[in-house]
Amino acid sequence: MTPIVSAQVSPTANELPFKVLVIIELASVLAGPQVGQFFAELGATVLKIEHAAQGGDVTRSWKTSAEPADTDVSAYFSSSNWGKQSLALDLTTAEGRAAIHALAARADVVLASYKPGDAEKLCVDYETLANLNPQLIYGHITGYGPEVHRAGYDAVLQAEAGFMHLNALPGQAPLKMPVAMVDLLTAHQLKEGLLTALYRRARTGQGALVQVSLLDSALASLANQGTGWLVTGHDPQPMGSGHPSIVPYGTVYQAADGRKLVLAIGSDRQFQQLCAALGRPLWATDLRFATNSARVTYRNELEELLQKRIGEVNGAELLLALEQRAVPAGAVRTVGEALTAKSAQHMLIPPCAAFPYSGLRTVAFRSNAWPVMPALSAPPHIGQQSAAVLNQGDEGHPQLKNDVFS
Question: Which Gene3D superfamilies is this protein grouped with (predicted)?
Answer without folding.
Answer: Crotonobetainyl-coa:carnitine coa-transferase, domain 1 (3.40.50.10540), formyl-coa transferase, domain 3 (3.30.1540.10)
